[in-house]
Amino acid sequence: MSTARRAPDRKRMIAAVHAAAKAHGLEGEAYRAMLRTHGGAESCADMTVRQLMAVLDHLNGHKLRTPSRRARPVAKGPAPLAKARALWLDLWVLGEVSDASEAALEAYAIRMTKGARGQGGQGVARLEWLDGDHLDRVIRGLRGWLARVAPALGRPDTPIHVLGQNLGAHPKVRVAWEQARRLDALGVDAETHALMGRPDDDLDRLLAARGRALRAAMDAGGIEPPLSHWLKGRT
């Protein structure tokens, strides 16, 4: 077969990859990570026909997802995986990451598992494929991230007093307290005395609502994630 006949086929394959990736809601770092994992390069233009076919086989072998750049993943599933999703949401509601989607968390997991034993320099491509040491590596990374940007959250034994009440070790209450502190720095009033005694579902709704308010305040002030960088600049 001549080069002249192969080129159009390759162009159609690249177009098919782009269309399938869009249907899966893959973009940015998540898209490039998928290309690296299954095609060996970050750009379709750098792939052979065989590599493009491997990428298409991967994309066509998974159930399509609704594009979800701003969608919030649901913290459900097996307990360790749900923990990873919950930690990622904590980073989002505190203004530390720009994208709360499942695809963004997958991109983070790929980066964290690249150096794992037996991976050959390629990260685990799907959250549902994480297990054992791989999942532990992701969760430790997320906990460490939170500990760096919000030290009080990483030390549940550290007392946080609001109007004479010790917030104790409840993680969602402590995240909500940290949200309130950040909103106050952005000039948005957020009550802290209303945090105690709320059920988990109510706290989830509060965290989500305050997360949106925090994002709106960041956008209004032209502040890009991570918010902790902006906060450090004010001290």
Which SSEs are present, and which pair or pack?
Blueprint: H1 3-23, H2 28-39, H3 49-60, H4 79-93, H5 102-113, H6 132-149, E1 161-162, E2 165-166, H7 171-185, H8 200-220, H9 227-233
Antiparallel strand pairs: 1-2
Helix pairs in contact: 1-3, 2-3, 2-5, 4-6, 5-6, 7-8
Report on the architecture of this protein.
The structure is a single chain. By secondary structure, this protein is an all-alpha fold. The protein has nine helices and two strands, in the order ααααααββααα. Strands 1-2 form a two-stranded antiparallel sheet. β1 and β2 form a beta hairpin. α2 packs across α5 and α4 packs parallel to α6. It is elongated and about 65 Å long. The N terminus is likely disordered. This is Phage gp16-like protein. Pfam families: GemA. It comes from Roseospira goensis.
